[in-house]
Amino acid sequence: MNRENKRKQYQKGYYKTHACDDSFTCRVCGRPVVPAGAGSDHRNHCPNCLSSLHVDDEPGDRAADCGGIMDAIGVWVRKNGEWAVIHRCRRCGVLHSNRAAADDNPMKLMSIAMKPVAFPPFPLERIEELIALMGGDGAVR
Q1: Which of 10, 46, 89, 119 could staple 26 via S-S, CB 3.0–4.6 A?
Q2: At 33, is the secondary structure helix, strand, or coil?
Q3: CB 45 within 8 A of CB 103
């Protein structure tokens, strides 16, 4: 069932209070995605590639007209220790945060989390110099 048919079938805000039990095929990796295994009633991204679609302005409202692919660009940890995935829309650039699902690809989550460490905003060759500027003795231990 495509997004337009969902809008015709359900009232605005329906998915805020009702579980989304629709299966779909990921538009990025092509794998089938089922709601079972997500650990919640609201499956909002592919557990394999972590991609999503821009269908909501607010969680569950299905009000976004964009429909662009949302790429997983980062992760963050909520104060309760739960991980969340940061998505950015390829079409309009909007950012959304979604809970990491129980069956999300752990290697994909870790690769996104480690990207800033792998590509720091300064040359690693300068690390001793930067430490010295901060008042350290400049030795990397």
Answers
A1: 46
A2: strand
A3: no
Mention every residue, 6+ apart, whose C-beta is less than 8 A from residue 25.
31, 32, 33
Query: CA-CA distance, 53 to 64, in Å (whole number)?
Result: 10
Q: What distance in Å separates the CA atoms of residue 1 and residue 118, rounded to the nearest whole number?
A: 40
Q: Is residue 140 part of a domain?
A: no
Report pTM.
0.73
pLDDT (tens digit, 9 = 90+) per residue, 102-121?
899 999 999 999 999 888 88
> From the CB of residue 56, how many other CB atoms can be counted at a distance below 10 Å?
20
As for how many domains the chain has, the answer is: 1
**Average per-residue pLDDT in the chain?**
81
* Cα separation, 111 vs 107, whole angstroms: 6
Domain containing 105: what range? 3-133
116 CA to centre of own chain: 16
Asked whether residue 139 is domain-assigned, the answer is no
Alpha helices in the chain (DSSP H): 3-9, 14-17, 106-118, 127-133
